[in-house]
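Re: that chain you flagged

S.,

Sorry for the slow reply, it's been a week of failed gels. I finally had a moment to sit down with the sequence you sent. For the record, here it is as I used it:
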Amino acid sequence: MRAKQLRNLTDIRRFLARIVNEYDHGKCNAEKLRTISYALNILAGVIKDSGLEARVEALENKLQGQLEKQFQGQFKRKSNAA
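Prediction finished late last night. Pasting the structure tokens below so you have them in one place:
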């Protein structure tokens, strides 16, 4: 079996479906299915967490930019009023 690239949840779902089909056709045993399923579950969690982390970071950066613009506008208004 060649190395499988599991980069996202779709890849994991497809690979798991393939292994389940192999099990159904007697091409792999229950222990192999259980071991791979466990590892895929862990990998899916890592992918979800890393995606969430990237989304939170993007939101934080966007919020930081908005706050900087807001405060710059306030400082300009005060200096123009003086």
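What I noticed first: The mean pLDDT is 88.

Talk soon,
D.
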